[in-house]
Amino acid sequence: MAYVKATAILPEELISEIQKYVQGETIYIPKTVASHQKWGTRSGTRKLIDDRNALMKRAFKNGRTIDQLADEYYLAIETVKKVVYSK
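The chain above was modelled as a monomer; its predicted structure follows.
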């Protein structure tokens, strides 16, 4: 998260109004709910994990054991169970 000077982006009237409540402090202004993205969406990590999980489910349906999948994907057995038994 990069810091931006308020004077560079906000109108002077708004800065004056904010200064009634906060002066010389760092404040965080959250995104709106509509612009929030789920974890890994921007980086593509979510898609990679979803694709991996789909491959694991398919392999399990085709006869691979949970132990084999845990070894192949370097995951704990409980993690593999969560993946293959989830809907």
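The radius of gyration is 23 Å.
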